[in-house]
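Let us begin with a simple case.
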Amino acid sequence: MALRVPQSGGPQLFKEGYKNLQGLEEVILRNIQATKEMSEITRTSFGPYGRNKMIVNHLDKLFVTNDAATIIRELEVVHPAAKLLVMASQQQEAEAGDGTNYVIILASELLQRAEPLLRMGLHPSEIARGYELAMDEALEQLDTLAVDEVKVWSEQSELLKAVRTAVASKQYGQEHVLAPLVAEAVQASMPRDATRFSVDNVRVVKIMGGGLAQSRVVHGMVLPQAPETVCHNAQFARVAVFSCPVDMGQTETKGTVLLHNANEMLDYTKGEEAQMEQAV
């Protein structure tokens, strides 16, 4: 005798919003529909002419951007199938730093192309096997479609080949200004083993009042704040960088110091100077 699991007869058994889905029509095709809706959100932001999206997150913070990585990070995606696309795009962002929107669009399009095959009666495993064979063939054909190749990673002219197209996707029309700067910064911080390059070695500092054409590469350290002393310029100076605060320690309670003459005042300040010199 076979056991039969009874279906829910109403909302009294499960919380509000519960749905029981079964079969091809209600499960797989609904997952495909969810991924399609996910790609429709980011599809119009693809490419240099992509449109900006206005997003208000759960903290009521407003974002206006066409960056797919920012869009999917601020969206609270709960559908399991759409969440897989979000995780894939986030992995692409972590490994390559770009191509997040392309991952979502390509994966959604592959699933939509699989929908008529599912209706014809093919099993999902057979469709997945077909996509794996197509991937192997595509990887073989990609090598033959290359128009150029970066051979020497330590030369700026070679780096420009790879940097220019990446910059053009975000700052279209300004790649002739930004691409040489990015290539110069990458060349200056490139280790001997190019595969160990870290993007944290290059920092970007924004200064109010300037324009994009005034951007330049500084080999060293930039502190985006005004000096605390009257000395604004120094040449051949020795610079000390402290990783801890250099100031006098303060107690949690307040106290009162009574000074009767000038000598006591001088002795009091000398004590603070001695403590400061000891700390330095």
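The second case is a distinct protein. As before, the sequence precedes its structure tokens.
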Amino acid sequence: MAEMSDSNLAKTTVIQQAIASCCGAIITSLFVTPLDVIKTRLQAQSNPFYKGKCFVYSNGLMDHICVCDNGDSKAWYKKPGHFKGMLDAFVKITQREGVKSLWSGLPPTLIMALPTTVIYFTCYDQLSEALKSRLGKDDEHIPILAGSLSRFGSVTIVSPLELIRTRMQFRKFSYKQLYLCISSEVASDGWLSLWRGWSSTVLRDVPFSAMYWYNYEHFKKILCKELGTHEPTFFIAFASGAASGSIASVITLPFDVVKTHRQTELWECETLKSAEGQYIDLGSYEENCR
């Protein structure tokens, strides 16, 4: 029975894996985004966002740096609320602004988050199968290697796109202006300038993925053995994912704090220089922000 299950899994095509990843990503974002919207509204209430202020927006798939622009009072994160807590904010936002407001800011972030998630999970599945054929399906190093490499690859591919997205959001560039800005930056600092902020993201995401997938596969095997089943059920997969995600999040929390602070300071430094009418060179981040 176990052999039959492995055979069926091996027949899963790349297209099927990509579609499954995409569907899972959308479902995850629909559940997690309202929590982050409420968190952001509570933060804005206690410490109002000024022009150029950066905050982290998470849709459950990846973190996005958002830059407050022009003191726009109509922006979803600046709407008044007078909330007393998470539950009070949930009720008031739903009653006054409609249920849709709980997913404010989601569509633009999915442009980056969906491709990242599809690349990540599809690469993990493909790498896992390739490593199993070489190292044996019971090798405990497979989840670590596949998780680390797939996350490293997805972050590397998407990092320049996220940099461009944030810059477009802040400066309101046309595509032509954006092209000229990027071209001049590449000519001045080289192609690696498009991957600024990449190192702090990799230092957080790669260890997280390695720990997550190792623990996920390990817990799954234990639960299958305890419950006497050869194939993991939804409960086994859910419990394994929740436990491994919690452990990885706690251990990599210091890296997450460093990543968030570095990226928000980098963009707040850029907005400050931009307000003074100066050209922003993100490569000289350390010199500009001291």
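The two ends are 62 Å apart (CA to CA). The CA atoms of residues 49 and 68 lie 7 Å apart.
Keep these points in mind for the review questions at the end of the chapter.
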